[in-house]
Design brief:
- Helix content is 33%, strand content 16%.
- The protein is of the alpha/beta class.
- A 9-stranded mixed sheet has the order 1-2-3-5-4-6-7-8-9, sandwiched between helices.
- The N and C termini lie far apart (65 Å).
- The relative contact order is 0.14.
């Protein structure tokens, strides 16, 4: 009997190995197909731009590579940033009125034309439907959890469907409308990880989970699934919301990329929050890590209804200065692997033009959030590495500070890069480099304490 069981065990193991091997082969074939379509779309966009030369290669994140990115602060070259409070015509901006009427619209125009792209005028409407609603318990806290589907009207082009996935959790003990933290994340997570905790495997085991922490303060949570809005690859640019608006055709160079599309999706979630009487639409925060940290700040910069920001390790293309030759560079962002996050025009700055030709930089993106409070978060260079350039993110906050001060607020309290773990939270621009990895996890308690000043909980 023991031998028979052993034989069955052997066959079971062989079956699993064959299954895993087949799945791996299928995934590789799928990924090869995506990469091929990515490159085809990338080449098609360069053709529209009239660029025939190869892009400059981006540096490698591997310090042992011959083409390694710079991770040595002493080798950072001097650079000049675009003026945040001087207009395109050279006028110094000295009043709040001039910021809102002159300089801010110029910066928005530059980001739309050169970096993130413009929203089309013919974006169809979104209808929010409740898929399910249940009372449950999350980390011992009673919660009403609502799963929503935002159906985008596709009557003009039925071949493409877009259904935005949004999960909302509202504390049941709340006596009045609650504030809400909206995270770019996933509801059905791969690899067996909890969908509610994206990126938590980089966080400290001693930190409570983010939903546990916000619920303890009677704050609600929302998880917005970015890939339900727009796929995270160039092959998907003829589908998703971008493809739907373009009737399945390739986008034009000035049209939006995935980051702006994800931000548009966040704005549609904001529309829903405004209709739910249990949610305080005046106290909504947006949070994300890495590429979703980029999406979070893009969302806040372009939607003034979002009241607080929490941007984790957003790096180049997000909260880190592009003109600093440290870590990831514009050549990496504008490559065939990441160009889909941006508008087609962005590719020019890694080929026909130089980084210095870009009319904007990250400090101006932070400034677009003013006077609303923002928290810039990073992990330790010892754990997360230096690809995202923590100091570059800090400096973006430093150089956005004059706009906050012009609007009667306080920016960063120092221009000296702080020691690991130091919480700079006295102003409306906050910064902390925690001791963990590529996650906001170890900064949640600091963020909540900081946010309590503005949300009065």
């Amino acid at each position: 009997m023991r031998n028979i069981r052993s034989i069955f065990d052997v066959f079971a193991i062989l079956f699993l190995l064959i299954s895993f091997s087949a799945e791996a082969q299928d995934y590789k074939a799928y990924q090869d197909s995506i990469n091929k379509l990515n490159y085809q779309n990338f080449v098609q966009m360069k053709k529209q731009l009239g660029i025939t030369a190869e892009n400059r290669p981006g540096p490698s994140g591997n310090p042992a590579s011959e083409n390694s990115a710079n991770f040595d602060e002493s080798k950072v070259k001097s650079y000049d940033l675009p003026e945040v409070l001087v207009s395109d015509k050279g006028k110094k901006i000295t009043t709040a009125e001039e910021w809102w009427e002159i300089r801010r619209p110029e910066i928005v125009e530059d980001f739309e034309n050169s970096v993130y792209g413009r929203l089309p005028e013919n974006i169809p409407s979104v209808t929010w439907n409740i898929v399910s609603e249940k009372d449950t318990t999350v980390y011992s806290y009673p919660v009403t959890e609502i799963l929503l589907e935002g159906f985008v009207d596709n009557s003009a082009y039925p071949e493409i469907e877009v259904k935005i996935e949004l999960l909302v959790g509202i504390p049941k003990r709340a006596k009045e409308a609650v504030p809400m933290v909206m995270e770019f994340g996933f509801i059905n997570s791969p690899f067996g990880r909890s969908a509610s905790e994206p990126g938590s495997y980089f966080a400290s085991a001693y930190e409570p989970k983010w939903k546990q922490q916000v619920l303890s303060q009677n704050i609600g949570y929302a998880i917005l699934v970015p890939n339900s809005i727009q796929a995270d690859n160039g092959a998907g640019l003829t589908s998703g919301i971008i493809g739907l608006v373009n009737n399945g055709k390739p986008r034009k160079p000035e049209q939006w990329g995935a980051l702006r599309a994800w931000g548009w999706g966040a704005s549609r979630a904001m529309d829903y929050f405004e209709t739910n009487p249990k949610i305080d639409e005046n106290r909504i925060a947006v949070e994300g890590v890495s590429r979703y940290g980029k999406a979070a700040i893009v969302s806040m910069a372009f939607d003034e209804r979002i009241s607080l920001g929490f941007f984790g390790s957003a790096g180049a293309g997000g909260t880190s200065l592009l003109r600093r030759n440290f870590g990831e560079q514009i050549e990496n962002l504008a490559s065939s692997g990441e160009y889909h996050w941006f508008c087609g025009n962005f590719i020019k700055y890694a080929s026909a033009l130089e980084t210095e030709d870009l009319p904007v930089d990250a400090h101006q993106l932070v400034a677009l959030c003013a006077p609303r409070p923002v928290f810039i978060s990073s992990g330790s260079h010892l754990v997360e590495g230096q690809w995202v350039d923590a100091k570059g993110m800090f400096l973006a906050g430093v150089h956005a500070t004059p706009v906050y001060e012009l609007l009667g607020r306080t920016g960063l309290e120092t221009s000296e890069f702080p020691k690991l773990g130091t919480a700079l939270t006295d102003g409306e621009i906050a910064f902390r480099q925690h001791a963990g990895g590529h996650s906001t996890g170890p900064n949640w308690s600091t963020w909540i304490a900081w946010a309590s000043r503005y949300w009065n909980f």
